[in-house]
């Protein structure tokens, strides 16, 4: 991806066109094409540890934003040990969250002809469809998505913003503005635990960019062989995710096991992205995660990615480097980091490989 600072919307590497999963399921729920099937090893069922889900930290954002030391300590531990946590008392109104989920559901219920008016072109990442499909051999994910760049406003491509259901645009704007506010508060607390001035992380973005990815996971007849979303780490600074209360699906890799994140009503799931991992020299972890499918119920999730401007030079902070913690990442320009990720994908790697290879390459390059 490339984000130009001179008022141009971001551009992206091409993605192959693949079938709409929701339509496929509508036509024949029982049939799951081979392109979506994974073997046991890929599913990593062996390491499935559902009972560990309760251990994911829950953090009170209002306490955090008031500088509560205990909560800041919890945040530090959550970022070091899990890379994931759920936030409560974040100030995003329940009604707004519900409305956002309702209108998104209404959008996905529209006939395919209507949704396809916003179809993601093969050379863009915005719109309705599938991104990051780079090879005909790639095992496909059991999901469709609507992806929009929300901020800054000059990067928006309104042709991809659905006109139906009525009011969707306004609700996306209101929800995203609240999520950005909560995310900015979190970045202030992350600055504090990283021993920086409160506003440093936000300022380092030059501009905090925000993208929204609404994932739609139709029910799947063979959930034990199919993934809703392949394992990946986020290229963001942080990601804030709203998920259905009643349908779990998100799993994160923790100490080699896949741990489900049990939805907590009204909470937002936060994960540390690659950029915080680099800034913190690996102290805080951008953890691999995936979405599994459900035999009977459809699931939706709303991922809001916060990330820096393309021209931001990202490197570990000096004070995070010492004899015990040598510099783990080379300096990267954020736009190049994303572009490199896309390029690797175009070379035929799956999302998992790309995320891993980039991280490893970054480390390897530093060691040479
Ligand atoms: C396997 O399925 C997926 C892999 C990666 C992503 C994904 C992760 C991100 O961190 C991310 C992102 O940060 C981002 O903004 C820079 C973005 O642009 C809209 C993404 O599409 C994005 O996707 C999702 C699914
Ligand atoms: O659906 C989920 O819970 C995960 C979504 C996700 O990881 C993403 O959109 O990047
Ligand atoms: Fe993600």
UniProtKB/TrEMBL annotation:
Keywords for the protein's UniProt record, in alphabetical order: Iron, Metal-binding, Oxidoreductase, Vitamin C
Every Fe2OG dioxygenase domain range: 207-308
Gene Ontology MF annotations: L-ascorbic acid binding; metal ion binding; oxidoreductase activity
Pfam annotation, one family: 2OG-FeII_Oxy
Xref: SUPFAM superfamilies: Clavaminate synthase-like
Family indicated by similarity: Belongs to the iron/ascorbate-dependent oxidoreductase family.
Name under which the protein is recorded: Protein SRG1-like
Gene: LOC101497259
């Amino acid at each position: 991806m490339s984000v130009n600072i001179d008022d141009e919307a971001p551009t992206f590497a091409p993605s192959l066109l693949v079938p709409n999963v929701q339509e496929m399921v509508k036509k024949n729920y029982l049939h799951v094409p081979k392109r979506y099937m994974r073997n046991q090893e890929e599913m990593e069922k062996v390491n499935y540890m559902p009972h560990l889900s309760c251990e994911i930290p829950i953090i009170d954002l209002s306490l955090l934003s008031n500088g509560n030391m205990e909560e800041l300590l919890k945040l530090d531990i959550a970022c070091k040990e899990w890379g994931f946590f759920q936030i409560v008392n974040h100030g995003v109104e329940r009604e707004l969250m519900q409305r956002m989920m309702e209108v998104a559901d209404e959008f996905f219920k529209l006939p395919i002809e209507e949704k396809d008016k916003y179809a993601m072109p093969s050379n863009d990442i915005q719109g309705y469809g599938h991104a990051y499909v780079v090879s005909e051999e790639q095992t496909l994910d059991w999901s469709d998505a609507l992806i929009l760049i929300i901020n800054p406003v000059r990067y928006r491509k309104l042709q991809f913003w659905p006109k139906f259901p009525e009011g969707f645009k306004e609700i996306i704007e209101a929800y995203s503005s609240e999520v950005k506010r909560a995310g900015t508060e979190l970045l202030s607390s992350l600055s504090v635990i990283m021993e920086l001035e409160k506003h440093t992380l936000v300022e380092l973005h030059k501009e905090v960019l925000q993208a929204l990815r609404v994932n739609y996971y139709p029910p799947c007849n063979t959930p034990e062989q199919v993934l809703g979303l392949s394992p990946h780490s986020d290229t963001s600074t942080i990601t804030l995710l709203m998920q259905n209360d009643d349908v779990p699906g998100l799993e994160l890799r923790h100490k080699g096991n896949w741990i489900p994140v049990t939805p907590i009503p009204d909470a937002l799931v936060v994960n540390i992205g690659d950029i915080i991992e680099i800034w913190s020299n690996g102290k805080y972890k951008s953890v691999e995660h995936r979405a599994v499918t459900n035999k009977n119920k459809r699931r939706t999730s709303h991922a809001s990615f916060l990330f820096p401007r393309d021209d931001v030079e990202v490197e570990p902070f000096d004070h995070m480097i010492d004899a015990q913690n040598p510099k783990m990442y080379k300096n990267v320009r954020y736009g190049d980091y994303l572009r490199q990720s896309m390029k690797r994908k175009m070379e035929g790697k799956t999302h998992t490989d790309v995320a891993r290879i980039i991280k490893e390459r970054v480390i390897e390059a530093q060691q040479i």
